[in-house]
Design goal:
The chain has about 180 residues and is mainly α. It has a single domain, classed as Serine Threonine Protein Phosphatase 5, Tetratricopeptide repeat (Alpha Horseshoe), CATH 1.25.40. It is built from 6 helices and no strands. About 15% of the residues have low confidence.
C-alpha cells in the first residue's frame, strides 16, 4: 500500500510540473520582477524609500512612524544582507559573476543598515533615550569599522553621550603610534 501511495504522489507531482500556471505564463514585462520595484520591492532602493519616509516623519514630529520606518529599514537591510551573502557563497567557485554581484549588493545593504541604525540612534537621542541608542551605535561601529565615515559618526555619538571618552583621531600611518 505504501508503494502505491508513493507512486501516486510522484505521478501527481510530475503532472503539476507539466502544468503551466497563469502567473508563470505572463509576459516578462507583466511585472515578473516585482521585488525590483523601487518603492515596494525587496531591494536596496526600497530600503532607501523606508529611510526617506522615516526622515519625513521625523521632520514633521511623528516619531512613532519614524521609528517604525527605521526599524523596517533595519530589518529589510539585515535580511537582504543575509540573502546576498548566502547566494554569494552558493555560487562561489561556479560562476564568479554572481558572487561579485551579490557581494556588491551586500556592501550596499550593509551601508543601508548602518544608515538606518544611525537614524534610529539619532531618534533615540532626540527622545532622551541615550541608553537605547548605545547598542545601535555600537552595531554601526562594528559593522562599518571606525575607518569608515558611518563608523566614525557612530563612535563620535558614543563620545558625545559619554559612553566612550577617548576621541578617535583617525587611523595613523603604518608604523606610527
Amino acid at each position: 500500500m505504501g508503494c502505491r501511495a508513493l507512486l501516486t504522489a510522484t505521478a501527481l507531482l510530475a503532472s503539476l510540473g507539466l502544468t503551466v500556471s497563469p502567473a508563470l505564463a505572463q509576459s516578462p514585462e507583466a511585472s515578473t520582477r516585482v521585488l525590483a520595484q523601487s518603492e515596494s520591492g525587496f531591494n536596496p532602493n526600497a530600503v532607501r524609500a523606508m529611510i526617506a519616509r522615516g526622515d519625513a516623519a521625523a521632520s514633521r514630529g511623528d516619531l512613532a512612524t519614524a521609528r517604525s520606518e527605521y526599524d523596517n529599514a533595519r530589518k529589510a537591510s539585515k535580511q537582504l544582507l543575509g540573502f546576498y551573502r548566502d547566494l554569494s557563497g552558493a555560487f562561489r567557485g561556479l560562476d564568479a559573476r554572481i558572487p561579485r554581484e551579490m557581494d556588491s549588493k551586500g556592501r550596499e545593504a550593509l551601508g543601508l543598515l548602518a544608515e538606518s541604525n544611525l537614524r534610529l540612534a539619532a531618534l533615540f537621542r532626540r527622545q532622551n533615550q541615550p541608553e537605547v541608542a548605545v547598542p545601535v551605535l555600537v552595531e554601526v561601529v562594528k559593522l562599518m569599522t571606525p575607518s569608515q565615515s558611518q563608523g566614525q559618526k557612530a563612535y563620535q555619538s558614543l563620545v558625545e553621550l559619554g559612553f566612550a571618552t577617548t576621541e578617535f583621531k583617525g587611523a595613523s600611518p603604518a608604523g606610527v603610534n
